[in-house]
Amino acid sequence: MRIFFDVDFTLIAPDGSLRPLVHEVFQRIVNDGHEIYVWSGAGVRWEVIRRHGLRPYIKDCFVKPLSDYRDSFGYLGVDKEPEFCVDDYPEVIEALGGTAIRPYLEPNPADEEMLRVYDAICAVMTTRVSC
């Protein structure tokens, strides 16, 4: 499954800190045979991916549409159709499917949202394969 993660407030806080458990959950997702893509309304964010050592998990990085989600893929260069999205904006999830994540606004070592995301991915996959 192609899983698309938003960057700001989903993977990182405004101060640039990485949400807890991202590495662990990304490793699980990849081990389960899925592909991880990252996109952001602020542009292609390879610098964030590299800074946090996430490059080994990520297939590609795109600009995220901010409106007309599916209709914007072509002109934004998004050449893969998301099969599951993770975003702090519920509107993105309503349009494309996936799970909304609680915004990550400040460093919080107790945050376990990524575990909930993994459980949501597994729940979708239970009809296809076991996680």
Notable features of this structure?
5 helices; 131 residues; alpha/beta; globular; Rossmann fold
Topology:
Layout: E1 2-6, H1 22-31, E2 35-40, H2 46-51, E3 58-63, H3 69-76, E4 84-87, H4 90-96, E5 98-100, H5 113-125
Q: What does this entry look like structurally?
A:
It is globular, with a radius of gyration of 14 Å. It has 131 residues and is an alpha/beta fold. It is built from five helices and five strands; from the N terminus they run βαβαβαβαβα. Strands 3-2-1-4-5 form a five-stranded parallel beta sheet, with helices on both faces. The chain starts with a strand and ends in a 6-residue tail after the last helix. The chain has one domain: 3-Layer(aba) Sandwich (Rossmann fold). The longest helix is centred in the last third of the chain and has 13 residues.
